[in-house]
Amino acid sequence: MKGGLRFLLSRPVGILVGSVAAVLLGVLAFQRIPLQLMPEGFENRWMTVYAMLRSSSPQEAERLVAIPLEEQLGTVSGIETMHTSCDPNRVRIRLQLKRDAHLPTVEREVRDRIQRVEPRLPDDVDRVRIRRHSASDMPVMMFAVRGEHEAIERVVLSDLVEEVLIPGLEALDGVASASSRGIVKRAVRIRLDREEVSRLNIHLYELRQRLNGDNLTLAVGDVEEGGHESSVRTAMEFRSLEEIADYPIRPGVRLGDVAEIGIYESLASGWSRFNQKPVIGCAVSKTSGSNTVEVCDRITDYFTHLRESDPRFGAITLRPFFDQGKEIRASVGALYDNAAIGGGLAMLILFLFLRRVRMTLLVSAAIPLSLTLGVTALYFSGGTLNMFSMMGFTLVVGMLIDNAIVVVEAILSRRERGDTPREAAARGTGEVALAVLTATCTTIIVFLPAIFLVDDHNARVFLTTLGKPIAFALLSSLAVALILIPLGAIYLRRRKDPPRAKMHHEPRGMRRLYVRMLSGAMRRRVLVVAVAFAFLYGAVVVAMPNLKQAQSFGWGGNSVRVRFRFPRHYTMNDADRAVKVYEEYLMGLIDELELEGCYARFEKPGGMVIVWQKPKSSLLIDDVKERIFEDWPKVPGVRVNLESFEEDGLTRVTLTGDDAARLQQGLDLIAARLEAMPFVAEVLREEDMGAQELRVTLNDGVVERLDINQDWVRGTVGWVVRGARLKDFRSPERDLPLLLEFNPSSTREVTDLGNTLVPTGTGLVPLATIAEFSIHKAPVSIRRRDGRRISERTVRGDVDDLKDLDRRVRAVVSSTPLPPGVRAELGGGWQQFKQDQSVLLQALGLAIVLIFLLTGVLFEELLLPLAVLLTIFPALAGSIWLLYLTDTPLDETGLIAFILLSGVVVNNGIVLVDRIQQWRRRGLPMRAAVLRAGSDRLRPVLMTALTTIVGLLPMALAGRPESGIRYDVMASMFIGGLAASTLLTLFLVPVAFTLFTDLSRALRRALRFASGGLWRRRARAR
Q1: CA dist 425 to 490, 676, 908, 941, Å?
Q2: Which of 434, 574, 748, 777 has its CA 20 to 30 A from that of 491?
Q3: What's the pTM value of the predicted model, to 2 decimals?
Q4: C-alpha to C-alpha distance for 795 and 676, rounded to whole angstroms
Q5: How many CB atoms within 10 Å of residue 217?
């Protein structure tokens, strides 16, 4: 290795040119590398099957759609659980996949099963859709579209959005899809007069079938004439409203005689308002792999282009209220600031130790050079700059000069011994090259367990995304330390060499104090081990059980949203009045709470209102949230849930059973008891048994006697209540939906439904003559899991500790007497945290094993690496103690810090033990070698620890960000772990080294004694 170093040091021009080229390449890579909020590759191990219905009851949706779909999907081998939601207008089946399932294969099987069951589903079911979820599904931008004055009609605005804006957005590079909400649709409606239909005894089921069959164009075959073949099509479509009105129902009766026919406007997807003004809400998603920031910039530029190039958009406002590009810039900007401040503090620590400007600048240059080379490597490996990769780069800022510090200290030590600058650079670097190489590899190797976590794809992606920038940056810092630092030490030295120091100079000041303390520790080795064990024992027994647990993520932290569900009997006008009450209240708080805007969207079942702060608001979001809910207006019957975009403090209570009434009874008991608990902020209700429904039950005896086709009766009653969708009407401008329904101005009493004529084998009879009507309570929504009904409540705690919330909720649930056949279980934040913790603890165990193997290769010993591994446990104890004393909750990033710490804290131990071995090889006795190595490595150990600690201080003191990932927990754990490990390393590692050396000698003596006795017995036997 020394020969290679000498060769490199003899080529300064080539190294300088190569360094400049690498920097230029890094600048280009930094400009081109994609910026994203989340890395590519995350897979939500579930997919969703949607079946959209026209208005129906949850029971109908369950019986006619959900159960047939569940029966088929239950045969797919890769599905672990099925969660089904049956709503009045939708069936949604959430398929949780097994960890080892291959997503494309499962998706093909799911599509196959759906194709088998689709012919058996009701006609009112639209095409069943499948959606695979990924991190890229999250919209990169959401915005509101509205006219600047009332002259712009909503239908005109809707046409512009659907025909110009949405297609234009989807044509942009990097945009995957764009959707809209609040669009006004036009439809041709045939509104039957109930009295005329009853008077003329019109066969409704037959009328619908005839209209569908006659409004159709079909290819019926080919004919040949004059040697030419032509296709034949029957064109029987309605071309005008007059043709529909003239459609004959029976001799002398036209459709126009019993119905009003016209083009009507209606909202297709709910209502949307921005600052109390009607708007169309739009959301845009990007394609996989594209640069999120660039996509958001293209969307903004497209808005400007539309207003300048299309006069129709001159009076239209496009107002973004969520821009993921801004979120990324804010988060990445905060990381940049933390890295810059941390790097500056690290340089200050360096100067205080080195007291040489040139050497300080030389060592500090390792930070930008290593980061530049790391970004270059990340770019060419296909990576992106996202929250996790930026976290990795920020974490290692203080570590990037560790190798350079060790090399510079070794070079300066050789200079003090009288070597020439070139010899000092070569010899000093050669002495520590293997140690710094091993130390760097131990930090990188802790991420190799990600390769073994094959049963958890997302954990592997997360660790890989975090580990790649750390590995690239540390390998770059190793190259800088072994090549550029020695070269700089030669050419950036002082003009006059420092006075030659004696070979065996006495340590002074701090070194003298440390050597004296280390000498005392060597005489009291048992006491040192006992103190270290007590420190670790206290962390495990006292601090760790009392740590709080929280989650790391909190997107959109400067926003607050209020969700609400309306009673079943609410019309859209009722919902509109309720939402206006909420909007009026929030608009009154705009100035007080420094809010930028209020966006509301709702449909008949429910909706939400979102408010968000101004960019430089002085108020904390928690204070805003508390003030909003303090005087929140009450609207009778409307259930309201106040929540931020964060998902902290959630526990889910799930009851399973077959009897809906018993499920509801048990759920009401648990909910009532939980709502009375002081630690519960609110109990979120997803379904309610309070709604009423009119149940129509056919008389079995009459059905058999009159030869009634029950499907015809159900179909007739269904479309009479909610209308029927026919084949589209092709107008000259566009295709319009064609709907057959009763006139909404006519009465909708039970007697009207009873007078509806339904077909039988003997003719038309009123429904009331063959059926009974009864009023029952029914759920607004039905939930199922794996073929059984379930009911759920989500509990939002008034505590930060997920484990404590789970324990308290579990105690309430276990003490609540449940009806027979009902079983309760808990899920949510703490359960997910435990799963993540289990995976990461496995990774930590594998990391420690790999570090042991690597240090064993370095020292050519089996016991000595244990002295180095002992630095891991004080570091973990120091992290736990710091979190406990500062009342900081442990989250997922903290678990990652445990893994990374295990690879970082062993570095000082490796350098120290390596130096002890060097002095022992030179002939020094054990005690003298330990004291001399401690004196030599004291400054490098303190410098590397302090530069890393101060480099992380800005991140630790930044607190919880408004949006994104919590970095303060990880930084705090690093600081606590490095501080504890450094102090104990300086004493525990030398003591452990001597203990393991003595143990090794004792084992060798025992082995020689045993082998010698065996040899003597064999000799006597001969």
Answers
A1: 7, 73, 21, 20
A2: 434
A3: 0.65
A4: 12
A5: 11
Q: Which of 418, 438, 429 is nearest to 499 (CA)?
A: 418
pLDDT confidence of residue 232: 46
415-447 residue pLDDT tens = 877 778 888 888 888 888 888 888 888 888 877
Residue 560's pLDDT band (boundaries 50, 70, 90)? confident
Comparing 934 with 689, the larger pLDDT belongs to: 934
The span from the CA of 326 to the CA of 320, in Å, is 11
Surface-to-core class of residue 156, CB atoms within 10 Å of its CB (0-12 exposed, 13-18 middle, 19+ buried): middle
| 3-class secondary structure, 283 | strand
- Round to whole Å and give the CA distance between 756 and 774: 17
Reference 8, options 21, 19, 20; nearest CA is 19
**Containing H/E element for 179?**
strand 175-181
Q: Please check whether residue 309 is in contact with residue 199, taking contact to mean a CB–CB distance below 8 angstroms.
A: no
How far is residue 620's CA from residue 624's CA, in Å, rounded to a whole number? Answer: 6
DSSP string computed for 867-922: HHHTTHHHHHHHHHHHHHHHTPPB-HHHHHHHHHHHHHTHHHHHHHHHHHHHHHHT
Question: Burial, 702: exposed, middle or buried (Cβ in 10 Å; 0-12, 13-18, 19+)?
Answer: middle
Average pLDDT over residues 249-273: 79
735-742 and 184-192 as β-strands: parallel, antiparallel, unpaired? parallel
Q: Which of 56, 115, 63, 112 lies closest to 84 in space, CA to CA?
A: 63
Q: Do 640 and 567 touch, CB atoms closer than 8 A?
A: no
Query: 232-271 b/e with 16+ CB inside 10 Å = b?
Result: eeeeeebeebeebbebebeeeeebbebbebeeeeebbbbb
| Cα torsion through 665, 669, 675, 679, rounded to 10 | -130
- Best-predicted range by mean pLDDT among 260-274, 486-500, 975-989? 975-989
Is pLDDT of 233 > 50? no
Q: Exposed, middle or buried: residue 623 (CB in 10 Å: 0-12, 13-18, 19+)?
A: exposed
Q: Tokens for 931?
A: 């004291």
8-state DSSP, 386: -
Q: Specify which residues 612 forms β-bridges with.
A: 559, 597
Fill in the amino acid letter for 186: R
CA distance 302 to 26: 31
C-alpha R_g of the chain: 37
* CA 26 from centre of chain: 29
Distances (CA, A) of 627 to 593, 609, 621, 686, 963: 8, 15, 10, 25, 20
**Distance in angstroms between the alpha carbons of the first and the last residue of the chain:** 52
Each residue's pLDDT tens digit, 490-544: 877 655 555 444 433 444 567 788 888 888 888 888 888 888 888 888 888 888 7
Beta bridge partners of 563: 608, 641
d(CA 895, CA 837): 7
d(CA 986, CA 911): 11
Question: In the prediction, which pLDDT does 236 show?
Answer: 60
Q: Is beta strand 771-778 parallel, antiparallel or unpaired with respect to 248-250?
A: unpaired
What one-letter code names the amino acid at 146?
Answer: R
- Looking at per-residue pLDDT, the higher value among 848 and 551 belongs to 848
Tokens for 958, please give them.
């930044």
